[in-house]
Amino acid sequence: MALLQVEPALFVGLVFVFGLLIGSFLNVVIHRLPKMMEVDWQMQCAELRGEAMPGAPRYNLWTPRSACPHCGHAITALENIPLLSWLWLRGRCADCGARISARYPLVELLTALLSAAVAWKWGMSMQIVGALLLVWALVALAFIDLDTTLLPDSITLPLLWLGLLFNLHGHFASLPDAVIGAMAGYLVLWSVYWLFKLATGKEGMGFGDFKLLAALGAWLGWQLLPVTILLSSVVGAAIGVAMIVLVKHDRRVPIPFGPYLAGGGLVALFFGADLTQAYLAQF
Q1: How far, in Å, CA of 226 to CA of 197, rounded?
Q2: pLDDT tens digits, 167-198
Q3: DSSP letters along 8-40, please?
């Protein structure tokens, strides 16, 4: 521990490697959690109809073992080394040669880089534990929403309570600022949702977006919500317009807002205070 304190680069490197391992697990969460939610919904619907659901094989984040979706080949330990295995296999299944999506190593590398950035910014402190948990949750939520337009309550709600817990001692914001941030984060998007629905008769966003912004408010405090909302809205609008104009994206097909909220939250986590001070300095 003393060596890690005097050699911050070594500590950052270790966190980077640990981030690769977490990224590999996040790939499992991103792929399996929506399927688990769907099974749970089917069971609830069957229960309401008074029907018995047929027995299904056990399926969760740990069982069954990861396997190729094309041939069923069980992934061995050597084939499951974060980032390196994908490069060694040249992005293909070792058994059938089917292509493995480049998104798997991308998630691993992104998680590792963000984890290393957290280690560099906060060092060996209590803040690093909270910041890492927040970063990992945001990566998982962004990719789940990108795939399914869902932001699972099983991640957003614990994330909100964890933010308040870490701010009991003001690690990222004072507790009053965190509580107000959670309330304001939810109410801002809730108000936008209802204004849009009353004006157009359509739903402009999902309730998961309200909960995610509330969680970010609980972690960062209400002062960083404007930065988070501005960044996510501007980037989301720009990409949405570009998709409609350049790739003829159907306007009736919803574009997930969660990845932009997560991105805005990450920028606010690392640079929010500096951006706010730079803006206020103009006045």
Answers
A1: 23
A2: 999 999 999 999 999 999 999 999 988 998 88
A3: HHHHHHHHHHHHHHHHHHHHHHHHHHHHHHHHH
